Amino acid sequence: MDWREHLRQIAESLADHPIRVAASAAGVLWGAAAIVLMLAWGTGFRDYMKLELGSFGRPMLFVFPALTSSGFDGVRKGVPVRFEREQARIVEHENHEVLDAVLAEHTSEERFLVDTPEGRARRYDLAGVEARYGELRRFRLGHGRFFDESDVAHARSFAVLGFDAALDLFGSAEAAIGARIRIAGRPFEVIGVADKKGRQYSNTNRPDNRLVLVPITTAEAHLGFRKESVSRLLVFPRAGIGGEEAFRAAVRTLAPLCGFHPEDPDAVKHFDLSKMLGLVDLFYAGFMIFIGIAGSLTLAIGGIGVANYQLATLAERSMEIAVSRAIGARTRTVVVQTALEALVVAGGAALGGVVLGLGGCLALATLPPPGMFPAPIVSPVVIGITVSALLAVAAAASILPALRVRRMDVATVLRGGI
């Protein structure tokens, strides 16, 4: 029997039971669509969260001074550790093979009152920063400029506003450039407005969109901050250097400068931003495994439905099959016919489910993503997992009916029909 005859008989068999075929194929179709959508959403979520976390800045560690602990010779318990601004440059210089940059930063414990000549006033978090801060923390300025080394060296009364802060005070980023503001009663000129950074699910203070930045020396000269006690150090490891290695290098240099033991676990605390990115990857891997297993189980249930359809059809056609084999039809031909029919049902439903899932992905991609539900992304991983699961289900759905035909006792079937 050639392939055209196989296909003709399959078409006739499917046409005889359209409702049964549709019911048995529905599980595979729905499972295939669901697995494509969920896996694609998982990929979209991973990329979205990495983009949001990446907007905070390059991979870095926030290093905070704390209190010394007991158990170390020559060091009293409970002594406050203080970072001086110049120590950031020393740490960077002595660990240049490991650290790309180390920045000192002043941050406000309470919000500063910022007002305009037009009478608008708001309270914002404020940070005194170095000239390299804008690049390393990814403050991209669509309007104006960031501070340069000259601004920091001369403690100029300049300010850079977060995007939302500029909108609150001036109505637009363009209107803010060159405008005068007062910070705690001190006049400043706005020289730059940062582009909007998105939702920022991770930050160490208020979101960057609502932050006011001034040169670190200006904060010390006019806003009450002291260079002998900066709020934290921002440590940027070189490519390929892990966060813990970078932190240990910084602590080895800071310990003699600040008067604490380098093995003291309480003297200095840190937060590693790269760990957040690692957690995103870990969540993504777990999510993909879970969805892969759950989707495969859904497809397996659909495959069982297809197999049951085939078994019911075989029960109805058992006499026809037995007669065919009794008058000379080869067992291999009948088995291939049965397996192909199951493959057509399962494969067609799976293909329809994939098309439905991809259509859903394309439709969702045209809509603005609501919050933490970003647009799904169809990646090679999604395609690979889906195709593997579908092939396994289609093969399993065809094997059981084919085995039933192969093991059929022709004589028993014929005697039962007489």
Give a verbal description of the structure.
- The chain has 418 residues and is an alpha+beta fold.
- It folds into two domains: 3-53 and 278-417, no CATH class; 99-238, no CATH class.
- Helices cover 55% and strands 15% of the residues.
- It has helices spanning 3-16, 18-54, 85-94, 133-136, 149-153, 163-170, 173-176, 216-222, 243-258, 273-326, 331-365, 380-406, 410-417; strands at residues 61-65, 99-107, 112-115, 121-129, 141-144, 158-161, 180-183, 186-194, 211-215, 232-237, 268-272.
- The protein has a six-stranded mixed barrel.
- A hairpin with a 2-residue loop joins strand 7 (180-183) and strand 8.
- Helix 1 packs across helix 11 and helix 10 (273-326) packs parallel to helix 12.
- The protein starts with a helix and ends with a helix.
- 38% of the residues are buried.
- The model has no long low-confidence stretch (mean pLDDT 80).
Provide a quick synopsis of the model.
This protein is α+β, with helices and mostly antiparallel strands and 418 residues long.
